[in-house]
DNA sequence: CATTAGTTTACGGAAACCCGTAAGGCTATC
DNA sequence: GATAGCCTTACGGGTTTCCGTAAACTAATG
């Protein structure tokens, strides 16, 4: 059983509800933070005291407000936390159920579970905690199981993402070519860019570039 | 003070947290639902019994799942609820802080308050409830006050929205022209469509159509 | 009815995008 | 080092979009 849990979630009602759910099920020590920076500080401090957290439950998106923050997203917090305390188990609790982001979380950030905010998230959180604690198996909410399938065929890379972002920023293809050349990227000719866009249009079944950007934005890829 | 409150929110942890906050402050009768359809049924039933709800607190977006639903969004629930019980006070509690949607909620759906899910939403909910109960003033979360300003200059109409949706669906301008003609819309020539797109590009400071669609999607207009 | 103002449509050239084909370059293998 | 396969780049012509200008239409006014 987890002894010391940190909850990182900015929306007060969610944080409140989440803590209630946890307390109802486990006699753990639970701390909450509303900012990623604070979460990292707490993790560091606990590590220093020799009483480290053994589980981090975090959201992905945090609202901007008046405060200047170093870590502005769950991804950044996870990366920072892992480099401080590599063994820390991490459960992401988020509304964002876009295949690409979830895939990234498991592949790059080595999170242990992804629980989607939803009608049954309280039971899923508990399930996830049990599995993550006892085994090295990863956990995802049942309704996201289809994503495992999507993930397999999701073969778009960093460069694709960059290109899509340039397009969505209103750059023309010659402009993008220049930008990529200056960034020292390979295959930066207008021709290659055309080809890449074409590949993406086929992949996402888009009629034209506008449709493509619309689609990838809906999917949360950019 | 509100005597009978209905909370319509699909994510269990939020619903749980919200109810705790309400109970801590008011001795009201509180019911919760995870589906808009159920919320409407509860409102109808209470009305029939002669013990109607006097406040509805609802989210805007609800997750799809296995259940077939008639009302799939908060907007639809609000419209249905208002037609059943015009006097019902409504507070929207949502993460979606896009000017256009909020403007619509106040203008078309005559909601009484909009509280943004955030770090201080528990106090804001209480504030909103006090104001909405005692007066006919509308309430919005303080951090959204800038939206009142944005709202004033937000002069895009239904036809603009339709056009933007067609564009984001990958239609060409001649195709859109045909579609609008068939729908019996005025100013449906390719020329007029060009002109309208151009107006929108200027308005949203977009370099090209891709950029335009990207921008309006970010703003939650479509 | 003539004039004016505002809106819608038409048109044409320039720019950007789309799409197929082909040439050039790199690597691996025999 | 010749060959084949793969990736990148180049090029050309067709389509779509972009943008300015002008014509046609509508409605209101004197």
Automatic annotation (TrEMBL), chains A, B:
PROSITE patterns: RESPONSE_REGULATORY. The modification 4-aspartylphosphate is found at residue 59. Transmembrane segments: none annotated. Keywords: Phosphoprotein. InterPro entries: Sig_transdc_resp-reg_receiver. Residues 4-132 form the Response regulatory domain. One of its GO terms (biological process) is phosphorelay signal transduction system. This is Transcriptional regulator. The lineage of its organism: Bacteria, Pseudomonadati, Bacteroidota, Flavobacteriia, Flavobacteriales.
């Amino acid at each position: 059983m987890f002894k010391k849990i940190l909850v990182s979630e900015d929306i007060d009602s969610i944080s409140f509800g989440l803590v209630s759910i946890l307390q109802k099920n486990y006699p753990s020590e639970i701390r909450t933070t509303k900012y990623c920076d604070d979460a990292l500080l707490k993790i560091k401090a606990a590590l220093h005291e020799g009483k480290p957290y053994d589980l981090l439950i975090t959201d992905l998106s945090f609202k901007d407000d008046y405060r200047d923050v170093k870590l502005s997203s769950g991804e950044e917090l996870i990366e920072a936390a892992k480099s401080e305390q590599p063994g820390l188990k991490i459960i992401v609790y988020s509304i964002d159920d876009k295949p690409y982001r979830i895939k990234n979380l498991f592949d790059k950030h080595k999170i242990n579970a992804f629980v989607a905010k939803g009608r049954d998230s309280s039971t899923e959180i508990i399930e996830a905690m049990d599995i993550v604690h006892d085994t090295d198996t990863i956990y995802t909410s049942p309704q996201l199981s289809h994503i495992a399938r999507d993930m397999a065929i999701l073969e778009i890379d960093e460069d694709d993402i960059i290109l899509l972002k340039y397009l969505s920023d209103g750059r023309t293809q010659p402009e993008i070519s220049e930008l990529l050349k200056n960034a020292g990227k390979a295959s930066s000719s207008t021709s290659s860019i055309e080809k890449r866009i074409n590949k993406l249009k086929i992949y996402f079944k888009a009629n034209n570039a506008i449709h493509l950007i619309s689609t990838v934005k809906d999917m949360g890829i950019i």
